[in-house]
Protein backbone atom coordinates (compact mmCIF):
# COMPACT_ATOMS: atom_id res chain seq x y z
CA UNK A 1 0.00 0.00 0.00
CA UNK A 2 1.11 3.57 -0.64
CA UNK A 3 2.00 5.73 2.35
CA UNK A 4 -0.78 8.32 2.52
CA UNK A 5 0.84 10.70 4.99
CA UNK A 6 2.25 13.30 2.62
CA UNK A 7 1.51 14.35 -0.92
CA UNK A 8 0.24 17.11 -3.16
CA UNK A 9 -3.36 16.16 -2.52
CA UNK A 10 -4.32 14.40 0.69
CA UNK A 11 -7.77 12.94 1.17
CA UNK A 12 -8.41 11.85 4.74
CA UNK A 13 -11.37 9.94 6.19
CA UNK A 14 -13.68 11.21 3.48
CA UNK A 15 -17.39 10.47 3.78
CA UNK A 16 -19.86 11.51 1.14
CA UNK A 17 -23.46 10.45 0.54
CA UNK A 18 -25.92 11.39 -2.11
CA UNK A 19 -29.47 11.10 -0.81
CA UNK A 20 -29.52 7.85 1.15
CA UNK A 21 -26.72 6.31 -0.87
CA UNK A 22 -23.31 6.29 0.77
CA UNK A 23 -20.70 6.84 -1.93
CA UNK A 24 -17.55 7.14 0.16
CA UNK A 25 -16.95 6.05 3.73
CA UNK A 26 -13.55 6.64 5.26
CA UNK A 27 -11.68 7.15 1.99
CA UNK A 28 -7.93 7.86 2.23
CA UNK A 29 -5.90 8.79 -0.83
CA UNK A 30 -2.59 10.53 -1.31
CA UNK A 31 -1.62 11.99 -4.68
CA UNK A 32 2.07 12.58 -5.14
CA UNK A 33 3.73 15.50 -6.83
CA UNK A 34 5.00 15.00 -10.37
CA UNK A 35 3.35 11.60 -10.82
CA UNK A 36 0.47 10.27 -12.86
CA UNK A 37 -2.00 8.85 -10.35
CA UNK A 38 -4.87 6.74 -11.61
CA UNK A 39 -8.13 6.27 -9.78
CA UNK A 40 -9.93 3.15 -10.95
CA UNK A 41 -13.08 1.39 -9.97
CA UNK A 42 -16.17 -0.27 -11.37
CA UNK A 43 -18.84 2.01 -12.87
CA UNK A 44 -20.90 3.79 -10.27
CA UNK A 45 -18.24 3.79 -7.53
CA UNK A 46 -18.14 7.58 -7.57
CA UNK A 47 -14.90 8.24 -9.43
CA UNK A 48 -16.21 11.40 -11.08
CA UNK A 49 -17.75 12.41 -7.74
CA UNK A 50 -14.28 12.11 -6.20
CA UNK A 51 -12.85 14.51 -8.79
CA UNK A 52 -15.64 16.95 -8.06
CA UNK A 53 -14.86 16.68 -4.35
CA UNK A 54 -11.14 17.30 -4.93
CA UNK A 55 -11.96 20.46 -6.86
CA UNK A 56 -14.73 21.44 -4.40
CA UNK A 57 -17.52 21.39 -6.90
CA UNK A 58 -19.00 19.20 -4.16
CA UNK A 59 -18.46 19.41 -0.42
CA UNK A 60 -17.78 16.25 1.65
CA UNK A 61 -20.01 15.28 4.59
CA UNK A 62 -17.00 14.47 6.69
CA UNK A 63 -13.21 14.37 6.40
CA UNK A 64 -10.63 16.70 4.90
CA UNK A 65 -9.12 17.29 1.48
CA UNK A 66 -5.79 19.08 1.55
CA UNK A 67 -4.30 20.53 -1.63
CA UNK A 68 -0.69 21.52 -1.01
CA UNK A 69 -1.49 21.59 2.70
CA UNK A 70 -4.54 23.86 2.29
CA UNK A 71 -7.89 22.56 3.53
CA UNK A 72 -10.11 23.38 0.56
CA UNK A 73 -13.32 23.23 2.63
CA UNK A 74 -12.21 26.37 4.48
CA UNK A 75 -11.54 28.53 1.41
CA UNK A 76 -13.82 31.42 0.49
CA UNK A 77 -14.85 31.80 -3.13
CA UNK A 78 -11.99 34.13 -4.04
CA UNK A 79 -9.33 31.83 -2.61
CA UNK A 80 -11.04 28.80 -4.10
CA UNK A 81 -10.92 30.38 -7.55
CA UNK A 82 -7.28 31.25 -6.96
CA UNK A 83 -6.58 27.62 -6.13
CA UNK A 84 -8.59 26.39 -9.10
CA UNK A 85 -6.32 28.34 -11.42
CA UNK A 86 -3.69 25.78 -10.45
CA UNK A 87 -5.95 23.01 -11.74
CA UNK A 88 -6.67 22.07 -15.31
CA UNK A 89 -9.54 19.69 -15.82
CA UNK A 90 -10.47 17.58 -18.78
CA UNK A 91 -14.13 16.62 -18.65
CA UNK A 92 -15.50 13.34 -19.97
CA UNK A 93 -17.05 14.93 -23.05
CA UNK A 94 -14.58 17.80 -23.37
CA UNK A 95 -17.13 20.40 -22.22
CA UNK A 96 -16.06 22.85 -24.92
CA UNK A 97 -18.13 26.00 -25.21
CA UNK A 98 -20.27 25.29 -28.24
CA UNK A 99 -20.88 28.86 -29.37
CA UNK A 100 -17.23 29.74 -30.04
CA UNK A 101 -14.61 28.08 -32.24
CA UNK A 102 -11.65 25.94 -31.20
CA UNK A 103 -9.22 28.86 -31.06
CA UNK A 104 -11.53 30.94 -28.86
CA UNK A 105 -12.21 27.94 -26.62
CA UNK A 106 -8.51 27.58 -25.88
CA UNK A 107 -8.12 31.35 -25.57
CA UNK A 108 -11.12 31.58 -23.23
CA UNK A 109 -9.29 31.31 -19.85
CA UNK A 110 -6.60 33.74 -21.07
CA UNK A 111 -9.14 36.33 -22.15
CA UNK A 112 -11.05 35.96 -18.87
CA UNK A 113 -8.08 36.04 -16.51
CA UNK A 114 -5.41 38.12 -18.20
CA UNK A 115 -5.09 41.33 -20.16
CA UNK A 116 -2.59 39.92 -22.61
CA UNK A 117 -2.49 41.57 -26.03
CA UNK A 118 -4.15 39.62 -28.85
CA UNK A 119 -0.83 38.87 -30.52
CA UNK A 120 0.46 37.11 -27.41
CA UNK A 121 -2.80 35.23 -26.87
CA UNK A 122 -2.60 34.01 -30.46
CA UNK A 123 0.95 32.85 -29.87
CA UNK A 124 0.10 30.95 -26.67
CA UNK A 125 -3.06 29.37 -28.10
CA UNK A 126 -1.34 28.20 -31.28
CA UNK A 127 1.49 26.72 -29.20
CA UNK A 128 -0.95 24.72 -27.08
CA UNK A 129 -2.97 23.62 -30.10
CA UNK A 130 0.26 22.54 -31.80
CA UNK A 131 1.16 20.47 -28.74
CA UNK A 132 -2.05 18.46 -29.13
CA UNK A 133 -1.67 18.36 -32.92
CA UNK A 134 -4.72 20.46 -33.74
CA UNK A 135 -3.27 23.77 -34.87
CA UNK A 136 -4.99 23.18 -38.20
CA UNK A 137 -8.41 22.91 -36.53
CA UNK A 138 -8.24 26.35 -34.90
CA UNK A 139 -11.11 27.74 -36.98
CA UNK A 140 -13.43 24.76 -36.58
CA UNK A 141 -16.49 24.81 -34.34
CA UNK A 142 -16.76 22.23 -31.52
CA UNK A 143 -19.70 20.52 -33.27
CA UNK A 144 -17.43 19.73 -36.25
CA UNK A 145 -14.87 17.84 -34.14
CA UNK A 146 -14.72 14.11 -33.53
CA UNK A 147 -14.80 12.87 -29.92
CA UNK A 148 -11.04 12.42 -29.80
CA UNK A 149 -10.37 15.84 -31.32
CA UNK A 150 -12.76 17.54 -28.88
CA UNK A 151 -10.90 15.94 -26.01
CA UNK A 152 -7.56 17.11 -27.37
CA UNK A 153 -8.87 20.67 -27.71
CA UNK A 154 -10.16 20.44 -24.14
CA UNK A 155 -6.69 19.27 -23.10
CA UNK A 156 -5.13 22.29 -24.81
CA UNK A 157 -7.60 24.52 -22.99
CA UNK A 158 -6.88 22.81 -19.65
CA UNK A 159 -3.15 23.49 -20.19
CA UNK A 160 -3.38 27.04 -21.40
CA UNK A 161 -3.06 28.63 -17.94
CA UNK A 162 -0.06 26.37 -17.19
CA UNK A 163 -1.64 24.47 -14.28
CA UNK A 164 0.24 22.48 -11.63
CA UNK A 165 -2.31 19.71 -11.55
CA UNK A 166 -4.11 18.21 -14.54
CA UNK A 167 -7.24 16.18 -13.89
CA UNK A 168 -8.63 13.80 -16.49
CA UNK A 169 -12.14 12.44 -16.13
CA UNK A 170 -12.47 9.22 -18.16
CA UNK A 171 -10.22 10.44 -20.98
CA UNK A 172 -10.30 7.14 -22.90
CA UNK A 173 -14.03 6.47 -23.05
CA UNK A 174 -15.51 6.03 -26.51
CA UNK A 175 -12.29 6.62 -28.44
CA UNK A 176 -10.97 4.62 -31.37
CA UNK A 177 -7.59 2.90 -30.79
CA UNK A 178 -5.63 5.62 -32.61
CA UNK A 179 -7.20 8.51 -30.70
CA UNK A 180 -6.79 6.54 -27.50
CA UNK A 181 -3.09 6.01 -28.17
CA UNK A 182 -2.71 9.72 -28.88
CA UNK A 183 -4.37 10.70 -25.61
CA UNK A 184 -2.34 8.15 -23.61
CA UNK A 185 0.89 9.56 -25.03
CA UNK A 186 -0.27 13.14 -24.42
CA UNK A 187 -1.09 12.44 -20.78
CA UNK A 188 2.39 11.08 -20.17
CA UNK A 189 4.12 13.74 -22.26
CA UNK A 190 2.33 16.65 -20.60
CA UNK A 191 3.08 15.29 -17.15
CA UNK A 192 6.79 14.80 -17.75
CA UNK A 193 7.54 17.74 -20.04
CA UNK A 194 5.69 20.33 -17.99
CA UNK A 195 6.58 18.88 -14.58
CA UNK A 196 2.98 18.78 -13.45
CA UNK A 197 1.01 16.22 -11.49
CA UNK A 198 -1.81 14.31 -13.13
CA UNK A 199 -4.87 12.60 -11.74
CA UNK A 200 -6.61 10.24 -14.06
CA UNK A 201 -9.97 8.62 -13.47
CA UNK A 202 -10.67 5.67 -15.69
CA UNK A 203 -11.58 2.01 -15.86
CA UNK A 204 -9.49 1.21 -18.91
CA UNK A 205 -7.01 -1.09 -17.18
CA UNK A 206 -4.66 -1.56 -20.15
CA UNK A 207 -4.24 2.15 -20.83
CA UNK A 208 -3.74 2.95 -17.17
CA UNK A 209 -1.06 0.29 -16.90
CA UNK A 210 0.96 2.04 -19.62
CA UNK A 211 0.54 5.58 -18.36
CA UNK A 212 0.20 5.67 -14.57
CA UNK A 213 2.86 5.67 -11.86
CA UNK A 214 0.49 4.48 -9.20
CA UNK A 215 -3.15 3.52 -9.05
CA UNK A 216 -5.94 3.36 -6.52
CA UNK A 217 -8.77 0.92 -6.95
CA UNK A 218 -11.93 2.11 -5.26
CA UNK A 219 -14.76 -0.19 -4.35
CA UNK A 220 -17.58 0.11 -1.82
CA UNK A 221 -16.59 3.66 -0.90
CA UNK A 222 -13.06 2.72 0.15
CA UNK A 223 -9.65 2.11 -1.37
CA UNK A 224 -9.65 -1.61 -2.15
CA UNK A 225 -6.05 -1.66 -3.36
CA UNK A 226 -3.28 0.69 -4.34
CA UNK A 227 0.16 0.51 -5.86
CA UNK A 228 1.97 0.46 -9.20
CA UNK A 229 0.26 -1.27 -12.14
CA UNK A 230 2.55 -4.30 -11.69
CA UNK A 231 1.75 -4.59 -8.01
CA UNK A 232 -1.95 -4.47 -8.77
CA UNK A 233 -1.90 -7.09 -11.47
CA UNK A 234 0.07 -9.50 -9.25
CA UNK A 235 -2.18 -9.10 -6.26
CA UNK A 236 -3.94 -11.94 -4.48
CA UNK A 237 -7.13 -9.95 -3.83
CA UNK A 238 -10.16 -11.46 -5.60
CA UNK A 239 -11.71 -8.06 -6.26
CA UNK A 240 -8.56 -6.58 -7.79
CA UNK A 241 -8.09 -9.67 -9.96
CA UNK A 242 -11.69 -9.50 -11.13
CA UNK A 243 -11.30 -5.85 -12.05
CA UNK A 244 -7.84 -6.05 -13.63
CA UNK A 245 -8.78 -9.07 -15.73
CA UNK A 246 -12.30 -7.95 -16.54
CA UNK A 247 -14.12 -11.02 -15.19
CA UNK A 248 -17.93 -10.79 -15.33
CA UNK A 249 -18.61 -12.33 -11.94
CA UNK A 250 -16.73 -12.24 -8.65
CA UNK A 251 -16.80 -10.03 -5.58
CA UNK A 252 -18.53 -7.45 -7.80
CA UNK A 253 -21.60 -9.52 -8.68
CA UNK A 254 -22.88 -9.72 -12.26
CA UNK A 255 -26.48 -9.58 -10.97
CA UNK A 256 -27.86 -6.49 -9.33
CA UNK A 257 -29.60 -7.31 -6.03
CA UNK A 258 -32.90 -9.01 -6.94
CA UNK A 259 -35.43 -11.45 -5.45
CA UNK A 260 -35.05 -15.18 -6.10
CA UNK A 261 -35.25 -15.84 -9.86
CA UNK A 262 -37.48 -18.94 -9.74
CA UNK A 263 -39.83 -17.41 -7.19
CA UNK A 264 -40.15 -14.27 -9.29
CA UNK A 265 -40.84 -16.19 -12.51
CA UNK A 266 -43.55 -18.17 -10.72
CA UNK A 267 -45.03 -14.90 -9.50
CA UNK A 268 -44.65 -15.88 -5.83
CA UNK A 269 -42.76 -12.73 -4.91
CA UNK A 270 -45.91 -10.66 -5.48
CA UNK A 271 -47.93 -12.40 -2.76
CA UNK B 1 -52.81 14.16 1.71
CA UNK B 2 -52.43 16.91 4.32
CA UNK B 3 -48.78 16.06 4.70
CA UNK B 4 -48.23 16.20 0.92
CA UNK B 5 -49.88 19.61 0.71
CA UNK B 6 -47.69 20.80 3.58
CA UNK B 7 -44.52 19.56 1.85
CA UNK B 8 -45.59 21.18 -1.43
CA UNK B 9 -46.16 24.44 0.42
CA UNK B 10 -42.76 24.27 2.14
CA UNK B 11 -41.16 23.42 -1.18
CA UNK B 12 -42.82 26.40 -2.83
CA UNK B 13 -41.72 28.81 -0.09
CA UNK B 14 -38.17 27.43 -0.25
CA UNK B 15 -38.02 27.77 -4.05
CA UNK B 16 -39.44 31.27 -3.89
CA UNK B 17 -36.83 32.26 -1.31
CA UNK B 18 -34.05 30.75 -3.38
CA UNK B 19 -35.35 32.62 -6.45
CA UNK B 20 -35.16 35.91 -4.56
CA UNK B 21 -31.60 35.22 -3.42
CA UNK B 22 -30.70 34.31 -6.98
CA UNK B 23 -32.25 37.58 -8.19
CA UNK B 24 -30.19 39.49 -5.60
CA UNK B 25 -26.99 37.79 -6.75
CA UNK B 26 -27.78 38.75 -10.35
CA UNK B 27 -28.40 42.36 -9.31
CA UNK B 28 -25.24 42.61 -7.19
CA UNK B 29 -23.12 41.36 -10.07
CA UNK B 30 -24.84 43.46 -12.73
CA UNK B 31 -22.95 46.79 -12.33
CA UNK B 32 -19.51 45.16 -12.70
CA UNK B 33 -20.60 43.27 -15.81
CA UNK B 34 -22.12 46.41 -17.38
CA UNK B 35 -18.99 48.46 -16.67
CA UNK B 36 -16.30 45.89 -17.44
CA UNK B 37 -17.91 43.42 -19.84
CA UNK B 38 -20.36 45.58 -21.76
CA UNK B 39 -19.65 43.58 -24.91
CA UNK B 40 -21.20 40.45 -23.40
CA UNK B 41 -24.39 42.37 -22.60
CA UNK B 42 -24.59 43.89 -26.07
CA UNK B 43 -24.33 40.39 -27.58
CA UNK B 44 -27.24 39.23 -25.43
CA UNK B 45 -29.31 42.32 -26.30
CA UNK B 46 -28.82 41.24 -29.89
CA UNK B 47 -29.83 37.63 -29.09
CA UNK B 48 -32.86 38.45 -26.96
CA UNK B 49 -33.90 41.73 -28.57
CA UNK B 50 -32.82 42.07 -32.18
CA UNK B 51 -33.60 38.45 -33.01
CA UNK B 52 -37.12 38.82 -31.53
CA UNK B 53 -37.87 41.90 -33.67
CA UNK B 54 -39.53 40.14 -36.59
CA UNK B 55 -41.99 38.13 -34.50
CA UNK B 56 -42.78 41.19 -32.36
CA UNK B 57 -43.42 43.39 -35.40
CA UNK B 58 -45.56 40.85 -37.26
CA UNK B 59 -47.66 40.13 -34.16
CA UNK B 60 -47.93 43.86 -33.36
CA UNK B 61 -49.15 44.64 -36.87
CA UNK B 62 -51.94 42.06 -36.72
CA UNK B 63 -52.96 42.80 -33.13
CA UNK B 64 -53.25 46.47 -34.15
CA UNK B 65 -55.25 45.45 -37.23
CA UNK B 66 -57.67 43.47 -35.05
CA UNK B 67 -58.05 46.46 -32.71
CA UNK B 68 -58.85 48.63 -35.73
CA UNK B 69 -61.52 46.17 -36.90
CA UNK B 70 -63.06 45.54 -33.48
CA UNK B 71 -62.88 49.19 -32.51
CA UNK B 72 -64.53 50.29 -35.73
CA UNK B 73 -67.33 47.70 -35.68
CA UNK B 74 -68.23 48.36 -32.03
CA UNK B 75 -67.70 52.11 -31.85
CA UNK B 76 -69.66 52.72 -35.05
CA UNK B 77 -72.77 51.49 -33.21
CA UNK B 78 -72.52 54.68 -31.19
CA UNK B 79 -71.32 56.80 -34.11
CA UNK B 80 -67.99 57.05 -32.31
CA UNK B 81 -65.77 55.42 -34.96
CA UNK B 82 -63.48 58.48 -34.87
CA UNK B 83 -62.36 57.26 -31.42
CA UNK B 84 -60.87 54.09 -32.86
CA UNK B 85 -57.37 55.64 -32.65
CA UNK B 86 -57.79 56.38 -28.95
CA UNK B 87 -59.21 52.91 -28.38
CA UNK B 88 -56.25 51.25 -30.09
CA UNK B 89 -53.70 53.50 -28.39
CA UNK B 90 -55.05 52.85 -24.89
CA UNK B 91 -55.26 49.11 -25.45
CA UNK B 92 -51.79 48.87 -26.94
CA UNK B 93 -49.81 51.23 -24.74
CA UNK B 94 -51.31 50.20 -21.42
CA UNK B 95 -52.05 46.51 -21.82
CA UNK B 96 -51.54 44.62 -25.03
CA UNK B 97 -48.12 46.05 -25.86
CA UNK B 98 -46.37 45.04 -22.63
CA UNK B 99 -48.37 41.84 -21.99
CA UNK B 100 -48.27 40.28 -25.45
CA UNK B 101 -44.64 41.31 -25.90
CA UNK B 102 -43.80 39.61 -22.59
CA UNK B 103 -45.61 36.43 -23.65
CA UNK B 104 -43.92 36.42 -27.05
CA UNK B 105 -40.61 37.22 -25.39
CA UNK B 106 -41.04 34.23 -23.06
CA UNK B 107 -41.80 32.02 -26.06
CA UNK B 108 -38.99 33.26 -28.29
CA UNK B 109 -36.14 34.52 -26.09
CA UNK B 110 -37.05 32.93 -22.72
CA UNK B 111 -37.10 29.39 -24.08
CA UNK B 112 -33.86 30.03 -25.97
CA UNK B 113 -32.19 31.26 -22.76
CA UNK B 114 -33.50 28.43 -20.58
CA UNK B 115 -32.57 25.68 -23.01
CA UNK B 116 -29.18 27.19 -23.81
CA UNK B 117 -28.23 27.47 -20.14
CA UNK B 118 -29.75 24.05 -19.36
CA UNK B 119 -27.75 22.42 -22.15
CA UNK B 120 -24.58 24.22 -21.07
CA UNK B 121 -25.15 22.68 -17.67
CA UNK B 122 -25.93 19.23 -19.09
CA UNK B 123 -22.76 19.25 -21.21
CA UNK B 124 -20.58 20.35 -18.26
CA UNK B 125 -19.80 23.74 -19.82
CA UNK B 126 -20.79 25.53 -16.61
CA UNK B 127 -18.71 23.12 -14.49
CA UNK B 128 -15.81 23.64 -16.89
CA UNK B 129 -16.05 27.39 -16.30
CA UNK B 130 -16.11 26.81 -12.55
CA UNK B 131 -12.95 24.75 -12.97
CA UNK B 132 -11.32 27.53 -14.98
CA UNK B 133 -12.02 29.80 -11.98
CA UNK B 134 -14.64 31.69 -13.98
CA UNK B 135 -17.91 32.32 -12.19
CA UNK B 136 -20.70 31.15 -14.54
CA UNK B 137 -23.18 33.41 -12.78
CA UNK B 138 -21.18 36.45 -13.88
CA UNK B 139 -19.98 35.18 -17.22
CA UNK B 140 -23.15 33.44 -18.47
CA UNK B 141 -26.20 34.35 -16.40
CA UNK B 142 -25.83 38.06 -15.67
CA UNK B 143 -25.27 39.14 -19.31
CA UNK B 144 -28.25 37.06 -20.46
CA UNK B 145 -30.45 38.45 -17.71
CA UNK B 146 -29.43 42.03 -18.52
CA UNK B 147 -29.88 41.44 -22.24
CA UNK B 148 -33.51 40.49 -21.60
CA UNK B 149 -34.17 43.34 -19.17
CA UNK B 150 -32.79 45.92 -21.61
CA UNK B 151 -34.56 44.48 -24.66
CA UNK B 152 -38.08 44.10 -23.26
CA UNK B 153 -39.11 47.80 -22.95
CA UNK B 154 -37.84 48.48 -26.49
CA UNK B 155 -39.66 45.46 -27.87
CA UNK B 156 -42.88 46.51 -26.12
CA UNK B 157 -42.53 50.05 -27.49
CA UNK B 158 -41.92 48.74 -31.00
CA UNK B 159 -44.91 46.38 -30.64
CA UNK B 160 -47.17 49.31 -29.69
CA UNK B 161 -45.92 51.56 -32.49
CA UNK B 162 -46.32 48.87 -35.14
CA UNK B 163 -49.71 48.01 -33.61
CA UNK B 164 -50.86 51.62 -33.99
CA UNK B 165 -49.66 51.51 -37.57
CA UNK B 166 -51.73 48.34 -38.11
CA UNK B 167 -54.79 49.95 -36.54
CA UNK B 168 -54.26 52.98 -38.79
CA UNK B 169 -54.06 50.84 -41.92
CA UNK B 170 -57.31 49.04 -41.08
CA UNK B 171 -59.32 51.94 -39.66
CA UNK B 172 -58.15 54.80 -41.87
CA UNK B 173 -56.94 53.23 -45.11
CA UNK B 174 -59.46 50.40 -45.35
CA UNK B 175 -62.53 51.46 -43.38
CA UNK B 176 -62.41 55.19 -44.11
CA UNK B 177 -62.04 56.73 -40.63
CA UNK B 178 -60.85 60.33 -40.86
CA UNK B 179 -57.07 60.39 -40.32
CA UNK B 180 -57.18 63.78 -38.58
CA UNK B 181 -59.73 62.50 -36.06
CA UNK B 182 -57.78 59.26 -35.61
CA UNK B 183 -54.65 61.08 -34.43
CA UNK B 184 -56.22 64.16 -32.86
CA UNK B 185 -58.49 62.25 -30.47
CA UNK B 186 -55.61 60.05 -29.47
CA UNK B 187 -53.43 63.06 -28.76
CA UNK B 188 -56.04 64.86 -26.66
CA UNK B 189 -57.06 61.90 -24.48
CA UNK B 190 -53.74 60.10 -23.92
CA UNK B 191 -51.87 61.31 -20.84
CA UNK B 192 -48.22 60.87 -20.08
CA UNK B 193 -49.18 58.64 -17.11
CA UNK B 194 -50.78 56.17 -19.55
CA UNK B 195 -47.51 55.87 -21.39
CA UNK B 196 -45.61 55.58 -18.11
CA UNK B 197 -47.84 52.70 -17.06
CA UNK B 198 -46.89 50.83 -20.23
CA UNK B 199 -43.20 51.56 -19.77
CA UNK B 200 -43.23 50.42 -16.13
CA UNK B 201 -45.10 47.25 -17.06
CA UNK B 202 -42.74 46.39 -19.87
CA UNK B 203 -39.72 46.93 -17.65
CA UNK B 204 -41.13 44.79 -14.82
CA UNK B 205 -42.17 42.05 -17.26
CA UNK B 206 -38.68 42.16 -18.76
CA UNK B 207 -37.15 41.54 -15.33
CA UNK B 208 -39.63 38.75 -14.54
CA UNK B 209 -39.35 36.97 -17.91
CA UNK B 210 -35.53 37.15 -18.00
CA UNK B 211 -35.16 36.14 -14.35
CA UNK B 212 -37.43 33.11 -14.74
CA UNK B 213 -35.77 31.99 -17.97
CA UNK B 214 -32.26 32.20 -16.50
CA UNK B 215 -33.40 30.59 -13.24
CA UNK B 216 -35.14 27.68 -14.93
CA UNK B 217 -32.16 27.04 -17.21
CA UNK B 218 -29.65 27.20 -14.36
CA UNK B 219 -31.71 24.87 -12.16
CA UNK B 220 -32.64 22.44 -14.93
CA UNK B 221 -31.94 18.78 -14.22
CA UNK B 222 -28.98 18.14 -16.55
CA UNK B 223 -30.66 15.58 -18.80
CA UNK B 224 -32.60 15.86 -22.08
CA UNK B 225 -35.88 15.51 -20.20
CA UNK B 226 -34.84 18.00 -17.52
CA UNK B 227 -33.91 20.67 -20.07
CA UNK B 228 -37.13 20.21 -22.03
CA UNK B 229 -39.13 20.46 -18.81
CA UNK B 230 -37.27 23.63 -17.82
CA UNK B 231 -38.05 25.16 -21.22
CA UNK B 232 -41.75 24.41 -20.88
CA UNK B 233 -41.85 25.68 -17.31
CA UNK B 234 -40.22 28.94 -18.43
CA UNK B 235 -43.13 29.73 -20.75
CA UNK B 236 -45.86 28.56 -18.39
CA UNK B 237 -44.57 30.25 -15.24
CA UNK B 238 -43.67 33.48 -17.06
CA UNK B 239 -47.17 33.67 -18.58
CA UNK B 240 -48.83 33.18 -15.20
CA UNK B 241 -46.50 35.60 -13.42
CA UNK B 242 -46.88 38.29 -16.10
CA UNK B 243 -50.68 38.16 -16.01
CA UNK B 244 -50.83 38.29 -12.20
CA UNK B 245 -48.33 41.15 -12.01
CA UNK B 246 -50.18 42.95 -14.80
CA UNK B 247 -53.32 42.89 -12.68
CA UNK B 248 -51.41 44.29 -9.69
CA UNK B 249 -49.77 47.13 -11.62
CA UNK B 250 -53.02 48.06 -13.35
CA UNK B 251 -54.80 48.14 -9.98
CA UNK B 252 -52.09 50.38 -8.52
CA UNK B 253 -52.51 52.90 -11.36
CA UNK B 254 -56.28 53.29 -10.91
Give your account of this protein's structure.
The complex is a heterodimer of chains A (271) and B (254). Chain A has 271 residues and is an alpha/beta fold. Chain A has a domain of 155 residues: P-loop containing nucleotide triphosphate hydrolases (Rossmann fold, 3-Layer(aba) Sandwich), CATH 3.40.50.300. Helix content of chain A is 36%, strand content 22%. At the A-B interface, helix 2, strand 6 and helix 3 of A face helix 5 of B.
Q: Determine the most extensive contact between two protein chains.
A: A-B, 25 and 13 residues
Estimated structural class of chain B = mainly alpha
Mass-distribution shape of chain A: globular
Q: Which structural category fits the helices and strands of chain A?
A: alpha/beta
Structure summary, number of beta strands of chain A? 10
What is the third-level CATH name, the topology of the domain at 1-78 and 195-271 in chain A? Rossmann fold
Write the CATH homologous superfamily of the domain at 1-78 and 195-271 in chain A.
P-loop containing nucleotide triphosphate hydrolases
Amino acid sequence: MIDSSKGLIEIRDLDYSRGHREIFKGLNISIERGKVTAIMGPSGTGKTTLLRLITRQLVPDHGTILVDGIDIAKLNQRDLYKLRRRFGMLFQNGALLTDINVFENVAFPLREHTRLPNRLIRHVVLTKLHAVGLRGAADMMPAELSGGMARRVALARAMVMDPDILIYDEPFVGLDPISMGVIVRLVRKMNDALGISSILVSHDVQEIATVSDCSYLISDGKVAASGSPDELSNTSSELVRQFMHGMADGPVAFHFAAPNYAEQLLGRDVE
Amino acid sequence: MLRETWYTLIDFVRTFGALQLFFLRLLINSPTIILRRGGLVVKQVYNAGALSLVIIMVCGLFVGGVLGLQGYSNLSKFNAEDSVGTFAAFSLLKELGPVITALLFAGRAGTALASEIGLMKATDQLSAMEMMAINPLRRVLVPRFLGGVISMPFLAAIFSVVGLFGAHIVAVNLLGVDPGAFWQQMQSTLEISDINEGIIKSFVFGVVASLLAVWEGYNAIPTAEGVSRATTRTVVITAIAVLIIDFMITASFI
